């Protein structure tokens, strides 16, 4: 079976629709056909300041949501990144074959450090994509299911893998991005050309999976739509309406064409009202299952520890090879 790996940051109290539609939905499908590794990347979550107790709680909430959304520990390996020490160990080696200029060109780093002020940004924020490359390469992943915003990080990962292989001998599989076009960039309800994002300036723009459906309905009602009144799918000219149609289509499992026909002669208000109902239907069982996992944290932690053991078996085999190839002293 080909292998996939992906990760998600525990930096919010809930995942949002972008996380689900852009990434986690594919994770669930790929566990049927691939040898799948998924991690909650808590090491990545400390690059811009955090609260310790909140981080630990959010890692659990993240894992609980992933299980509630359909990851099955019998079909995939689900773990928390910090429980597999090989990740930062490989990251160090990769950082030594990454160019300073190359890392400086990462758009997410540039955006985030510009927001925080260069002097206040951590070195961890700068090396973040190298740790991400380590996450992927340790598992020899063939493909990495993510949203569009991760494409540049995956290009860096491929470059580093190729460079290491050339310098030290063939060690890493070159991973391909697995990006589903239609849902690769779910946009902000208030700003329909920007991606829906945890760090977005206004919470009104994001639909959170664990939010009260009444609250999500309100956000959807006040979503920015486009001029005109026709409900058509046209991302370039009608980004707001198209985004709502995309979310509706995937959650209700109805093709966009069919929705467009069904909404002929109706208005934006009708679309928003129905979408709010579809979202409510979708999140209800997710919220119940998430809560059930969180009600038994000991069981959840045990499940994650088992995942970490499985992950570590694979990661340590790769790391041993890497250490040998770069000429580190024989391990004891
Ligand atoms: P993170 O935690 O920001 O997001 C998790 C996943 O959700 C996708 N995503 C979106 N997709 C479509 N539309 C959106 N509006 C949207 N917002 C987020 C992201 O593309 C991502 O797939 N650097 C990664 C975490 C990471 C990782 C890895 C991913 C660490 N190590 C190894 C893959 C492989 C990140 O910050 O994702």
Key words describing this protein structure:
mainly alpha, two-stranded parallel ribbon, 332 residues, binds tryptophanyl-5'AMP, 3-stranded parallel beta sheet, single chain
Average per-residue pLDDT, rounded, comes to: 97
Query: Which shape, going by the Cα principal axes?
Result: globular
| Total of helices | 12
Largest sheet: 3 strands, parallel
Class based on secondary structure composition and strand pairing: mainly alpha
Straight-line distance between termini:
33 Å
Which ligands are bound?
A: tryptophanyl-5'AMP
Helix content: 40-55%
Low-confidence stretches: none
Oligomeric state of the chains present here:
single chain
Instruction: Tell me the series of helices and strands, N- to C-terminal.
Output: EHEHEHHHHEHEHHHHH
What is the topology, as strand order, of the major beta sheet? 1-2-3
- Over the alpha carbons, how many angstroms does the gyration radius reach? 21 Å
Per DSSP, what share of the residues sits in E-state strands of 2 or more residues? 5-15%
Count of DSSP E strands?
Answer: 5
GO molecular function: ligase activity
Motif ('KMSKS' region): 195-199
Binding site for L-tryptophan: 135
Subcellular location: Cytoplasm
